[in-house]
Write a structure and sequence with these properties.
Chain lengths: 457, 457
């Protein structure tokens, strides 16, 4: 048990920024969903890259696990300390290091949250668009390759991280990428670390792309009698090239949850929630073109609004969908599923999922980022009810198998973490072994977020 | 010398599709620019993935080098057989395997050229936008992370390859990615193989994103007295969020080359060549907004046109810029430089490069994809004139050092190949060693395109 030696050495460099209080260990052993508590042996609060590097060198010498911690908002238990060790909480590394308005990029520390970043950017006319809903840290969002409601227009973290500083498993500090918008200089290490879920190293700095705040924004909601025409509307919209900023689907059960939780007044039917960004004229034109597609598909209630308060209310409601759905079954906890398919198979995937859930004993509203072919069911289970949790897992399993059968992926945006590890072989086949080879090359002891991502880690 | 054994075994499976004719070896030892001829020992023409895998297994058993070959249009000698061995020419694997119009993707073999793909797509209303100028193969474009004139709007190969089939250095065949638009399932192997220049494996299939052919296209040219205001126009345009489809810079020397080669009638001044894609009204609005920025920066001659023949003439001229510039010095060969910087440093970088070239003894028109901060000088040297080649290399060296000093990259799009290997340490520091670790993990014998990309390979 080499962890005590690591703790002694770490205390020397971190002092009281190495915490072993029960409440801290508990907090860093918890997750937002159904996984059991898995506390680390200690929580470190480094203040700079040098401390992170020193920390990792100590842990490497002692074979002690190291797992990064951002805001704890992951839905797949990414940051759980499966083998104990050190949870590295980045809350003290939460600064904006440099804003370059002319180049539309920003350099930040990993513990900064996306909302805090956007507050700092407000006066620049720029914003950081990736929006997974939760107020996650940017380091965590990079680690899980987060996306969310705006990815259909602005891309995911894969598309919005220009470069990183990373502390590797042996304590080496590297920089990936540059501030140039593109590069053909060697292997794309930035792309490799984005989405690696902290299993190859700890990110200590990120260079992010920014986007101009649009001159005009408008949003709208419309309802459909069936899932099919709602999804057809999405497909036609994407194919027309209408540059949707957001195009979100919620099913009838989610609409009911919005009504109950947010005092909305939506018919209990499938809906699309959309947003347009652009010039005043451009937004009007986009809204008009979209409205025609809605009409062709017999959608109703489409009315667009540029009033900020209506827009804010709409997206606040959407962001709180998780809590609204939890409210459908007071006291429940949720297993949130995640799948992503080619858009031509989306209606089929949503409808089959809906049918599965209707045949099950637990409720599960469906909603998603349908412009990307990505959706979720929020499966509501009674805490401690083993049979219900198993049923939820079975429903998730059916969704995942369906995703693969339809040419898609087992996770569009929530990542692998603890919840999807068993599907890596099915999705990747022998390519999963290649991930293992890369992991082994960069972390031969397997100390970085062990128990995740690769086979036998 | 294990290569003869490999050749004997390869002949058994490929028959006369393994060529050892002098003309074939010569052809596959040549390049478009200044590198000496480096022929392979044989050229293989596989017809399918199974043959490629068998070929690689044989070469792995004998330690024989394997280098992919597309259209031979690389500008950095990527496909030269530095250590001999087998050049794998993909010309027989040039089919479109499946078009999915609803999902806006296509599955192709690597030997298909981008022009052939777009011919096949014409009736679908879709197109593949990445356009490096040359009619390169899609496998080669993926290997070098190609981009070009349209990357400012549609992204580079990094952004447009959804998935790949790859034959690894031990003959294993893997698939990366899915047909879903995004995924958070594990390490981004697609991103790792795109831009790896064939040093980690040979691509045998690609799934590519397609885009809708815009309803309206218009293009324009405008002139500036100085480089500075031309670049300021670009910066303001990007910051305004005008979704330029193309925004290209050519300097006075390039304008002169166009006049001589293509019968253009351009003032011998810096120019911007631009294109707008969108709805009819959207394109008109974009052109108007751009025109205002041009006026503010005292640009002249801005007039937009939606006439296809004018547009075609403009971009044909731009695509032939390399040959137009060669025409400035009959009989010359070219060293084409490539650098990419944050856009705020672009004017400084272009002006310093212009000054360097004016102080040198060789001509070198400058042009580039300035929306991305990426530009080139086409340095014209007399074949066999060692002093001139050294001078060109020195000019390129100055550009590369400047790129790094300004926070940019030593290559925006041409890649590393033979020409930029010496700059990998300077750009990446210890991250270059990480590339070496990945290379060693996946190709421990170093048979895949040896002599390239990593240290001591």
């Amino acid at each position: 048990m080499p962890i005590p030696e690591a703790l002694t050495a770490l205390e020397k460099i971190l002092g009281d920024r190495l915490s072993r209080s029960k409440s801290d260990l508990d907090l860093h052993g918890r997750n937002e969903t159904y996984f059991p508590v898995m506390p680390p042996d200690a929580v470190a609060y480094p203040e700079n890259t040098g401390e992170v590097a020193e920390l990792v060198r100590i842990c490497a010498a002692e074979g002690c696990p190291v797992t990064g911690w951002g805001a704890g908002t992951s839905l797949e238990g990414h940051a759980l300390a499966v083998r104990g060790g050190i949870s590295v909480d980045f809350r003290l590394m939460n600064k904006v290091l440099a804003i370059h308005p002319e180049d539309m990029d920003v350099i930040v520390q990993p513990g900064l949250t996306r909302e805090a970043l956007n507050r700092e950017l407000r006066a620049t006319g720029l914003f950081f668009p990736v929006d997974p809903g939760a107020n996650a840290t940017l380091g965590g969002m990079a680690a899980t390759r987060a996306s969310g409601t705006t990815a259909v227009r602005y891309g995911t973290m894969r598309d919005n991280v220009l470069g990183m500083e990373v502390v590797l498993a042996d304590g080496r500090v590297i920089r990936t990428g540059t501030r140039a918008r593109k590069s053909a200089a060697g292997y794309d290490l930035t792309g490799l670390f984005v989405g690696a879920e902290g299993t190859l190293g700890l990110t200590t700095e990120l260079t992010l792309k920014l986007h101009g705040q649009p001159e005009a924004i408008s949003s709208a909601v419309c309802a459909f009698d069936e899932i099919g025409p709602a999804v057809d509307t999405v497909i036609e919209t994407i194919q027309m090239g209408i540059p949707m900023a957001r195009i979100e689907f919620v099913d009838a059960a989610t609409a009911a949850a919005f009504n109950a939780y947010a005092g909305a007044d939506m018919p209990e039917k499938p809906h699309l929630l959309v947003e347009f960004h652009g010039s005043r004229r451009g937004v009007a034109e986009q809204a008009q073109s979209f409205g025609e597609i809605v009409n062709d598909n017999e959608g109703v209630g489409f009315e667009w609004s540029s009033r900020p308060e209506e827009r804010t209310a709409l997206w606040t409601m959407r962001h709180n969908a998780y809590y609204a759905c939890l409210g459908l079954r007071p006291g429940a906890t949720a297993l949130v599923t995640d799948m992503c398919v080619p858009i031509s198979r989306l209606a089929e995937a949503v409808e089959a999922t809906r049918a599965d859930i209707e045949a099950a004993s637990i409720p599960g509203p469906i909603l998603g980022h349908v412009g990307d072919g990505n959706f979720h069911a929020i499966l509501l289970v009674e805490p401690g009810n083993h049979a219900e949790l198993e049923e939820a897992k079975w429903l998730s399993h059916r969704m995942v198998e369906r995703a693969l059968r339809l040419g898609g992926t087992v996770t569009g945006e929530h990542g692998i973490g603890m919840g999807k590890l068993d599907y890596m072989a099915a999705e990747h086949g022998p390519a999963w072994d290649v991930m293992g080879q890369i992991k082994h090359a960069l972390d031969p002891q397997g100390i970085m977020n062990p128990g995740k991502m690769v086979r036998g880690n």
